[in-house]
Amino acid sequence: RRARLPGGGLIAAAAVLALIGGLWRAGRLDALSLVVEGRARSDALDGAIRDHLVLALGALVLAAGLTGGLALWRRGRGTVDLTVSGLQVVPAVALLGGLVAGLSALLTAAPALRGYGISALGIGPALIGIAAYLLLPLWRGLQAARRATGPDNIAAARALGLTSGQILTTLRLPLGTPALIGGLRVATVQALGLATLGALVGAGGLGTLVFDGMAQFAPDLILLGALPIIALSLAAEGALGRLEAALRRRWPR
Protein backbone atom coordinates (compact mmCIF):
# COMPACT_ATOMS: atom_id res chain seq x y z
CA ARG A 1 0.00 0.00 0.00
CA ARG A 2 1.19 3.47 -0.84
CA ALA A 3 1.78 5.88 2.02
CA ARG A 4 -0.59 8.80 2.18
CA LEU A 5 0.12 12.23 3.53
CA PRO A 6 -2.25 12.88 6.48
CA GLY A 7 -4.72 15.60 5.56
CA GLY A 8 -3.40 15.70 2.00
CA GLY A 9 -6.80 16.52 0.56
CA LEU A 10 -7.27 19.45 2.91
CA ILE A 11 -3.76 20.72 2.18
CA ALA A 12 -4.44 20.62 -1.56
CA ALA A 13 -7.78 22.39 -1.13
CA ALA A 14 -6.18 25.07 1.06
CA ALA A 15 -3.45 25.59 -1.55
CA VAL A 16 -6.02 26.03 -4.32
CA LEU A 17 -8.03 28.49 -2.23
CA ALA A 18 -4.86 30.42 -1.36
CA LEU A 19 -3.96 30.61 -5.06
CA ILE A 20 -7.41 31.85 -6.01
CA GLY A 21 -7.35 34.39 -3.17
CA GLY A 22 -3.96 35.67 -4.30
CA LEU A 23 -5.12 36.07 -7.88
CA TRP A 24 -8.26 37.83 -6.65
CA ARG A 25 -6.31 40.35 -4.58
CA ALA A 26 -3.88 40.95 -7.42
CA GLY A 27 -6.78 41.81 -9.72
CA ARG A 28 -5.99 39.00 -12.15
CA LEU A 29 -9.56 37.70 -12.00
CA ASP A 30 -11.31 41.03 -12.58
CA ALA A 31 -11.89 40.28 -16.25
CA LEU A 32 -13.79 37.05 -15.58
CA SER A 33 -17.50 37.43 -16.16
CA LEU A 34 -18.22 35.31 -13.07
CA VAL A 35 -16.27 37.76 -10.90
CA VAL A 36 -18.05 40.71 -12.48
CA GLU A 37 -21.41 39.04 -11.83
CA GLY A 38 -20.42 38.29 -8.24
CA ARG A 39 -19.45 41.88 -7.50
CA ALA A 40 -22.61 43.22 -9.09
CA ARG A 41 -24.74 40.89 -6.97
CA SER A 42 -22.63 40.79 -3.81
CA ASP A 43 -25.49 41.80 -1.51
CA ALA A 44 -27.87 39.29 -3.08
CA LEU A 45 -25.20 36.59 -2.86
CA ASP A 46 -24.56 37.23 0.83
CA GLY A 47 -28.27 37.09 1.58
CA ALA A 48 -28.71 33.93 -0.48
CA ILE A 49 -25.89 32.16 1.38
CA ARG A 50 -27.39 33.16 4.72
CA ASP A 51 -30.88 31.99 3.72
CA HIS A 52 -29.46 28.76 2.33
CA LEU A 53 -27.67 27.94 5.58
CA VAL A 54 -30.73 28.80 7.68
CA LEU A 55 -32.92 26.56 5.52
CA ALA A 56 -30.48 23.63 5.52
CA LEU A 57 -29.70 23.80 9.24
CA GLY A 58 -33.36 24.34 10.13
CA ALA A 59 -34.37 21.25 8.17
CA LEU A 60 -31.54 19.29 9.79
CA VAL A 61 -32.69 20.26 13.30
CA LEU A 62 -36.31 19.42 12.43
CA ALA A 63 -35.32 16.03 11.01
CA ALA A 64 -33.14 15.26 14.04
CA GLY A 65 -36.03 16.03 16.36
CA LEU A 66 -38.40 13.84 14.35
CA THR A 67 -35.84 11.02 14.32
CA GLY A 68 -35.51 11.21 18.08
CA GLY A 69 -39.28 11.10 18.45
CA LEU A 70 -39.62 8.12 16.11
CA ALA A 71 -36.93 6.29 18.08
CA LEU A 72 -39.25 6.29 21.09
CA TRP A 73 -41.83 4.28 19.12
CA ARG A 74 -40.21 0.91 19.68
CA ARG A 75 -43.08 -1.23 18.39
CA GLY A 76 -43.26 0.66 15.11
CA ARG A 77 -39.66 0.40 13.93
CA GLY A 78 -40.66 -1.67 10.91
CA THR A 79 -43.23 0.94 9.91
CA VAL A 80 -40.68 3.72 10.39
CA ASP A 81 -38.11 1.88 8.26
CA LEU A 82 -40.65 1.45 5.47
CA THR A 83 -41.84 5.05 5.65
CA VAL A 84 -38.47 6.81 5.69
CA SER A 85 -37.22 4.56 2.89
CA GLY A 86 -40.36 5.11 0.83
CA LEU A 87 -39.98 8.88 1.03
CA GLN A 88 -36.75 8.61 -0.95
CA VAL A 89 -38.71 7.29 -3.92
CA VAL A 90 -40.83 10.46 -4.18
CA PRO A 91 -39.21 13.11 -6.44
CA ALA A 92 -38.26 16.20 -4.44
CA VAL A 93 -40.11 18.61 -6.73
CA ALA A 94 -43.25 16.47 -6.54
CA LEU A 95 -43.05 16.36 -2.75
CA LEU A 96 -42.67 20.13 -2.51
CA GLY A 97 -45.58 20.60 -4.90
CA GLY A 98 -47.71 18.26 -2.82
CA LEU A 99 -46.84 20.14 0.36
CA VAL A 100 -47.77 23.47 -1.22
CA ALA A 101 -51.10 22.05 -2.40
CA GLY A 102 -51.77 20.45 0.98
CA LEU A 103 -50.97 23.61 2.92
CA SER A 104 -53.12 25.65 0.53
CA ALA A 105 -56.07 23.34 1.14
CA LEU A 106 -55.46 23.48 4.90
CA LEU A 107 -55.38 27.28 4.92
CA THR A 108 -58.55 27.40 2.84
CA ALA A 109 -60.31 25.17 5.35
CA ALA A 110 -58.86 26.99 8.37
CA PRO A 111 -57.97 30.60 7.44
CA ALA A 112 -57.20 31.40 11.09
CA LEU A 113 -53.92 29.50 10.71
CA ARG A 114 -52.56 32.38 8.65
CA GLY A 115 -52.47 34.40 11.84
CA TYR A 116 -49.85 32.00 13.20
CA GLY A 117 -47.54 32.66 10.26
CA ILE A 118 -48.41 29.47 8.38
CA SER A 119 -48.18 29.92 4.62
CA ALA A 120 -48.43 27.64 1.61
CA LEU A 121 -45.27 29.19 0.18
CA GLY A 122 -41.99 30.15 1.76
CA ILE A 123 -39.74 28.46 4.27
CA GLY A 124 -42.47 26.28 5.83
CA PRO A 125 -43.04 23.74 3.04
CA ALA A 126 -39.34 23.82 2.17
CA LEU A 127 -38.35 22.89 5.73
CA ILE A 128 -40.87 20.05 5.88
CA GLY A 129 -39.91 18.69 2.46
CA ILE A 130 -36.16 18.76 3.06
CA ALA A 131 -36.51 17.31 6.56
CA ALA A 132 -38.51 14.39 5.13
CA TYR A 133 -35.54 13.36 2.99
CA LEU A 134 -33.10 13.69 5.88
CA LEU A 135 -34.96 11.18 8.02
CA LEU A 136 -33.40 8.18 6.26
CA PRO A 137 -29.68 8.91 6.89
CA LEU A 138 -30.38 10.08 10.44
CA TRP A 139 -32.56 7.07 11.19
CA ARG A 140 -30.01 4.63 9.79
CA GLY A 141 -27.24 6.35 11.73
CA LEU A 142 -29.27 5.99 14.91
CA GLN A 143 -29.95 2.31 14.27
CA ALA A 144 -26.27 1.69 13.52
CA ALA A 145 -25.37 3.42 16.79
CA ARG A 146 -27.74 1.13 18.65
CA ARG A 147 -26.26 -1.97 17.02
CA ALA A 148 -22.72 -0.84 17.84
CA THR A 149 -23.21 -1.98 21.43
CA GLY A 150 -23.92 -5.70 21.21
CA PRO A 151 -26.04 -7.57 23.75
CA ASP A 152 -22.96 -9.44 24.98
CA ASN A 153 -21.30 -6.14 25.89
CA ILE A 154 -24.41 -4.99 27.72
CA ALA A 155 -24.68 -8.29 29.59
CA ALA A 156 -21.01 -8.12 30.61
CA ALA A 157 -21.42 -4.54 31.81
CA ARG A 158 -24.44 -5.46 33.91
CA ALA A 159 -22.54 -8.43 35.34
CA LEU A 160 -19.86 -6.00 36.47
CA GLY A 161 -22.50 -4.01 38.32
CA LEU A 162 -22.74 -1.01 35.97
CA THR A 163 -25.97 0.96 36.13
CA SER A 164 -27.98 1.95 33.05
CA GLY A 165 -26.49 5.45 33.21
CA GLN A 166 -22.95 4.09 33.41
CA ILE A 167 -23.61 1.76 30.48
CA LEU A 168 -24.86 4.73 28.47
CA THR A 169 -21.81 6.88 29.17
CA THR A 170 -19.13 4.18 29.05
CA LEU A 171 -20.46 1.90 26.30
CA ARG A 172 -23.37 3.14 24.24
CA LEU A 173 -22.20 6.71 23.60
CA PRO A 174 -18.52 5.95 22.88
CA LEU A 175 -19.35 3.05 20.54
CA GLY A 176 -22.40 4.64 18.93
CA THR A 177 -21.28 8.24 18.45
CA PRO A 178 -19.18 7.57 15.29
CA ALA A 179 -22.23 6.02 13.60
CA LEU A 180 -24.37 8.98 14.64
CA ILE A 181 -21.80 11.40 13.21
CA GLY A 182 -21.75 9.35 10.00
CA GLY A 183 -25.50 9.72 9.63
CA LEU A 184 -25.26 13.42 10.44
CA ARG A 185 -22.55 13.85 7.79
CA VAL A 186 -24.71 12.34 5.06
CA ALA A 187 -27.78 14.30 6.17
CA THR A 188 -25.89 17.61 6.31
CA VAL A 189 -24.53 17.28 2.79
CA GLN A 190 -27.96 16.19 1.57
CA ALA A 191 -29.59 19.18 3.29
CA LEU A 192 -27.21 21.65 1.65
CA GLY A 193 -28.01 20.19 -1.76
CA LEU A 194 -31.77 19.93 -1.29
CA ALA A 195 -31.98 23.48 0.06
CA THR A 196 -31.39 24.57 -3.54
CA LEU A 197 -34.94 23.48 -4.36
CA GLY A 198 -36.32 25.76 -1.67
CA ALA A 199 -36.23 28.58 -4.20
CA LEU A 200 -39.03 26.86 -6.13
CA VAL A 201 -41.45 27.51 -3.25
CA GLY A 202 -40.20 30.97 -2.35
CA ALA A 203 -37.86 29.97 0.48
CA GLY A 204 -34.88 31.80 -1.01
CA GLY A 205 -31.33 30.53 -0.78
CA LEU A 206 -28.69 29.98 -3.41
CA GLY A 207 -31.22 28.14 -5.55
CA THR A 208 -32.69 31.55 -6.40
CA LEU A 209 -29.51 32.47 -8.26
CA VAL A 210 -29.31 29.05 -9.92
CA PHE A 211 -32.88 29.10 -11.21
CA ASP A 212 -32.67 32.76 -12.23
CA GLY A 213 -29.59 31.90 -14.25
CA MET A 214 -31.34 28.96 -15.88
CA ALA A 215 -34.32 31.16 -16.79
CA GLN A 216 -32.03 33.78 -18.33
CA PHE A 217 -29.66 31.25 -19.95
CA ALA A 218 -26.86 32.90 -17.93
CA PRO A 219 -24.12 30.36 -17.06
CA ASP A 220 -22.30 32.91 -14.89
CA LEU A 221 -25.35 33.40 -12.69
CA ILE A 222 -25.86 29.64 -12.44
CA LEU A 223 -22.25 29.19 -11.31
CA LEU A 224 -22.58 32.07 -8.86
CA GLY A 225 -25.24 30.08 -7.05
CA ALA A 226 -23.86 26.58 -7.62
CA LEU A 227 -20.23 27.10 -6.58
CA PRO A 228 -21.05 28.17 -2.98
CA ILE A 229 -23.34 25.14 -2.65
CA ILE A 230 -20.51 22.87 -3.76
CA ALA A 231 -18.05 24.60 -1.42
CA LEU A 232 -20.39 24.35 1.57
CA SER A 233 -21.09 20.68 0.86
CA LEU A 234 -17.41 19.82 0.54
CA ALA A 235 -16.60 21.72 3.73
CA ALA A 236 -19.33 19.91 5.67
CA GLU A 237 -18.30 16.54 4.25
CA GLY A 238 -14.65 17.12 5.07
CA ALA A 239 -15.19 18.43 8.60
CA LEU A 240 -17.71 15.80 9.69
CA GLY A 241 -15.81 13.04 7.90
CA ARG A 242 -12.64 13.86 9.80
CA LEU A 243 -14.60 14.03 13.06
CA GLU A 244 -16.14 10.62 12.39
CA ALA A 245 -12.74 9.11 11.57
CA ALA A 246 -11.19 10.62 14.70
CA LEU A 247 -13.95 9.19 16.88
CA ARG A 248 -13.57 5.74 15.34
CA ARG A 249 -9.85 5.82 16.08
CA ARG A 250 -10.47 6.94 19.64
CA TRP A 251 -13.25 4.45 20.35
CA PRO A 252 -12.62 1.40 18.15
CA ARG A 253 -15.24 -1.32 18.33
Automatic annotation (TrEMBL):
Query: Taxonomically, which superkingdom?
Result: Bacteria
- Gene Ontology CC: one annotated term: plasma membrane
Localization annotation: Cell membrane
Topology term for the membrane: Multi-pass membrane protein
The UniProt keyword set, sorted, is: Membrane, Transmembrane, Transmembrane helix, Transport
User: SUPFAM superfamilies recorded for this chain?
Assistant: MetI-like
Q: Transmembrane stretches, by residue range?
A: 7-26, 53-73, 85-110, 116-136, 191-211, 217-240
Concerning InterPro entries, the annotation shows:
ABC_transp_perm/SBD, MetI-like, MetI-like_sf
Annotated GO biological process: glycine betaine transport; transmembrane transport
Query: What is the predominant subcellular site recorded for this chain?
Result: membrane
ABC transmembrane type-1 domain residues: 49-240
The answer to keyword Cell inner membrane applying to this record is: no
Record family assignment:
Belongs to the binding-protein-dependent transport system permease family.
Q: What is this protein called?
A: ABC-type transporter, integral membrane subunit
- Look up and give the organism this protein is from: Methylorubrum extorquens DSM 13060
